[in-house]
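User: Predict the structure for this protein chain, please.
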Amino acid sequence: MTPLGVLLIGAGGFAAGAANSVAGGGTFFSFPALLAVGVPPVMANASNSVALWPGSLAAAWAYRQELARYQRYLLPMGVASLLGGIAGGLLLLAAGDARFATLIPWLLAFATLLFAFSPQLSAALQRLRQRNNTAAPAAGPNEQHNTGSVGGWLVQLLVSIYGGFFGAGMGILMMASLAIGGHEDVQHINALKNLLSAVIYSVTVVTFIAAGAVSWPHTGVMLLTASAGGYLGARLARKIQGPWLRRVVIAVGSALSLYYFFKTPG
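Assistant: Here is the predicted structure, written as structure tokens:
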């Protein structure tokens, strides 16, 4: 690698780690950086997943206080993330990026719209639950929003498959699904997204390493800078008020959608 290549990959990794911890969409920065220095697409995708894995762990650790109240909820959602990550990674190795490229902008645009209108949709779902007298008993102070549903588990499984396959915008999709599922606090949504993303990255990392699909020199540089960006970004995100963080998420989702609409061949 040239010095310029190291600088480009390092900057892309730092931006990706920070973006993933704040609102998702880090692959928008890191994947193009790897392509720009000549890494083949499938190898760039695999290397990107390995490089962003520690950053997702660092971001989840920074949100450990918010995650403490979700202990029972995290187990089934973690299983969905694990299974989906394995399936998505295997699909990538079998099919490559090209077959999925045309769907990416549509998925991102749909997820951004879901997240933008999630307060209204959540309110409508809550009214429906109250009308049907299916509301769960009140939770204790440390057990808020610990209940899940089969539908929420299946959506997380699908998001995890997508994340294991390519990952661009996975955070946007996951935050949208969590918000639609009834989680109202954007900080808590972000905390759950960071931890579940870490699970997905963990299993895809094992899959890609076992398949020999990783470019280690490029990955090593990006791994260090993405970890730093992920931790610093999460610390910053915890200080941002909910409405502003929601605007950041919608802005990132819109930018990603436009980028991939223009980059995807017609």
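The radius of gyration is 18 Å.
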